[in-house]
Fold this sequence. Notes:
Largest sheet of chain B: 7 strands, mixed
Structural class of chain B: alpha/beta
Order of helices and strands of chain A: HHHHHHEHHEEEHHHHH
Oligomer: heterodimer
Largest interface: A-B, 54 and 71 residues
Number of strands of chain A: 4
Strand order of the largest sheet of chain A: 1-2-3-4
Number of strands of chain B: 12
Radius of gyration of chain B: 20 Å
Helix content of chain A: 25-40%
Distance between the termini of chain A: 40 Å
Strand content of chain A: 5-15%
Strand content of chain B: 15-25%
Number of helices of chain A: 13
CATH superfamily of the largest domain in chain B: Bacterial phosphonate metabolism protein PhnH
Number of domains of chain B: 2
Amino acid sequence: MYVAVKGGERAIDAAHDWLAEERRGDQAIPELTVGQIEGQLSLAVDRVMAEGSLFDRELAATAIKQARGDLIEAIFLVRAYRTTLSRFGYAEPVDTEKMAVKRRISAAFKDLPGGQVLGPTFDYTHRLIDLGLAEPGLEVEGAAPPPDDPAAPAHDDLMSPPRVVALLDDEGLLEQERPGPGDGDPGDITRQPLSFPADRGERLQALARGDEGYLLSLGYSTQRGYGRTHPFAGEIRHGAVAVEYVPPELGFPIVVGEIEVTECQLINQFAGSRERPPQFTQGYGLAFGHGERKAMSMALVDRALRSEELGEEIGAPAQDQEFVLAHADNVQATGFVEHLKLPHYVDFQSELELIRKLRDRWETPGQSEMRAEAAE
Amino acid sequence: MTMPLHTEARAAGYNFAFLDEQTKRALRRALLKAVAIPGYQVPFASREMPMPFGWGTGGIQVTASLIGPDDVLKVIDQGSDDTTNAVSIRKFFRRMTGVRTTERTEEATIVQTRHRVPERALSDDQILVYQVPIPEPLRYLEPRETETRKLHALSEYGLMHVKLYEDIARHGHIATTYAYPVMVGDRYVMDPSPIPKFDNPKMHRMRSLQLFGAGREQRVYAVPPFTSVRSLDFEDHPFAVQTWDQTCALCGAGDSFLDEIVTDDRGGRMFVCSDSDYCSRRRGDGETDPARGAAAE
């Protein structure tokens, strides 16, 4: 009995062996390759990269395989790996206006320079399970364009349309996000602990690695009246951007790679205040890979967190930066929630002793006042 | 800085003790500040570790920033070396540093603990590293960091005294049994981590350095050797530790914290030392394997 309570090294090793066996599943079925996960579960890979804060498809796919498809576990694996990587410098800010877009839409304008580009989206599919996918080789023909289809855009043809939010710039009706003269370098929440109040750069960093489900629900709550911000999807774009770095010994930027991102700029109504005229304001979201739900949720929450700066009334959970940011990280959250599985018998013993003491007192005659009080 | 030669036992591809040297330096700077201001919570840029937050990442980072090739490490959880998470953390450091580990309290240069202070008094060449879930003693009275920092800065601990007073008014005594708040160096109210209040007196003027790491909450704090650590109380309701009617069923100790073990489904109970090293040494069987012989019966 005692030994069982205390656990032990052999039990842990045996549990790990069993885990490896469960991960592999039925031996009669071929093992998944990392390439298959990377190619065919690409949105899972994207989410793991986004919340793992590391752009590496192969690593994310390997983590998904190791985590048996548990994405938060995979995110955790990626983060714990990322933290061991040495940092040799900061890249230049990526220019998303120069993105080679695969998809770009605006819900604010019917047509606009660069056009509406649907790209690969679930948006207008009918959510009917395609039973043909259950058997490999029976996929509906035409589901993917043949490689040499002249109508399919080659990578070089992908365009970089101008930003939608810049279109309203002439009239000054939409605030523009431009670095001001007094703006220093943004903070880095992986090198300096987040402190409150956090500035917008730090808030966006925390939201970018924040849990998609959490941000989705918080963003949703603002749409339902808890800190209402009247959003329009100004622009959502997804595609590849170049990452540039200025090596100190060269002194000019060189392209070190290309990453895929999804960017969302929401346009929100703002009634104006004594200092600022009525105008549209922005909420901003950016995620690695193709993550529209994440980028949109992030933009909603970003805008809600700007309430204080804009002098709006604050009262909803999504507007409370300590609440929102302190609980957004799913690696932290899952760790602390699941730590309840660790033994707590010392604390429990202490509480047990206290409850016994309180019970003795409660059962002693003449303690009726306390009983009445306790019943309140 | 050259790295010690423990490569044969260590996992390849990782720095000694997992963290890179710059991160360790940043952590040690935070720890120095913590030592200089006893009981004050110093923010630090906590890293993701390969164990989950809430499972000792603060303590693990503190240990990783301090440990060298000549250190001897002991890890306990609930007082025991044999608890699953203690086994896992000890294994991690063996893999990442190749240092020697021990279960004997006096042999260790670093003792990392969760929820207990060892029964055996520590010496001045030992460091006790606590794993901390919630470093802020005022957190459950005031959830906002911006507010609690202000309260600490102003030494404004009225909230806490009111809470303890209300306990007495309602229950006749203070109804906090673990993570019982302490006043450190007559300046900062500090959370001693969820150790039972039984262990609080051991912290007072302890000979060894006590370091506290909260990974998820990104804070470290410290109690330097020989620092005053007073458990909060009132003159007419002095602080008192837990006592048991029983002694340890295995070693007979009457001065240790006892775990209650349910032995059957008919209300059978036995009480045994939570500190497995203390208990097995008292029984004279030296090394490890605490209580296994007794339990097999």
